[in-house]
Amino acid sequence: MQTATDIEVVPSGAALGAEVRGIDLSRPMDDRKFGEIVKIFGEHSVICFRGQDLTPEQMRGFCNRFAEPQKLYMTHYAMPAHPDILYISNVQEDGKVIGYADAGSVWHTDGSFERQPPWATILHAREIPVTADGRVLGDTLFASAVAAYDELDDATRASLRGLRVRHDVAGRRRKTGTATEEDNAKYEAKEKVIHPLVRTHPFTGKKLLYVSDGECDRIEGMDDGEALALIARLQRQIVREDRLYRHRWQVGDVLVWDNCAVQHLATHDYHGFNPPLRRHMWRITVGHTDVYE
Ligand code: SIN
Fold first, then answer.
1. Kind and range of the H or E element at 126?
2. Residue 288 above 90 pLDDT?
């Protein structure tokens, strides 16, 4: 049994992100140790465990410690025999891509278009794209929506109070080009949901900007042109370069991020190589959070 004293935390140096060392996620851990992980997660919003090699059962077991997994709507990319695990992958089998290759192609928070969006996402890197000259591609960028709100002046905060935004998973994705026809059909079929633009984090109580230009396209009661301009302005505030955390993947990484606090973008810079570069991840989203101002 692993205990809380084994843990070492190495902050990324950016506004969010930390590596958590001294833990083998395939082995049992006591509640105190898991409680310590949740505390570190609350402080850093994105945490990484390097060098893991989990079975699907072990991955599920770890994720279940956080909360119940969400049901996938991209059911065509579920791991056979493990319907909670989504393949984020460009790997082809029998001439067909087996995973959700378009994932993360715009700034977003996972499942913001759900009535009860997930608390956390857990992504386990099984294969990462490396060029012939050794460059690792496929980084993921993270931005703090809490820091973005904190830095707003009082007048701007007051102007955002009470606004409600429409979340549409199709959003700008219709234009990314990496989505398959089946993906686009799933996007279009998904219900569009309205949430408050300013959100209170359900666990930390901090206020944050819950809006992304990748998936939000309307603000209730506002002219569309004005709404899109405001959404674009807030997006620039959220993804300010000096506050970003760039995750450079290694095989075996287990990355956990807080969808109530951060947005992310997958860089998608590994397409078009010959031979193709493979990127293969397992993803589980957990928790069903309420969204309120
Ligand atoms: C995602 O948006 O959940 C996937 C991110 C990634 O593949 O880096």
1. strand 120-127
2. yes
Total-model pTM: 0.95
- Measured CA to CA, the distance from residue 193 to residue 59 in angstroms comes to 30
Q: How far apart are CA 124 and CA 256, in angstroms?
A: 9
Query: Would you say how long the chain is, in residues?
Result: 293
Q: Is 47 in the pocket of ligand 1 (CB under 6 A)?
A: no
From the CA of 182, how far away is ligand 1's center (Å)? 18
Closest residue (by CA) to atom 1 of ligand 1?
104
- How far away, in angstroms, is 20 Cα from ligand 1 center? 20
Structure tokens at 82: 């493990």
Torsion sign, CA atoms 192, 193, 194, 200 = negative
User: What does residue 182 show for φ and ψ, rounded to 5 degrees?
Assistant: -65, -40
* Residue 144, H or E segment: strand 140-144
88 lines ligand 1 (CB under 6 A): yes
Pairing status of strand 18-21 against strand 46-49: parallel
Q: What is the pLDDT of residues 165-179, one digit of tens each?
A: 999 988 765 555 667
Q: Which amino acid is at 133?
A: D
Nearest CA, atom 2, ligand 1? 104
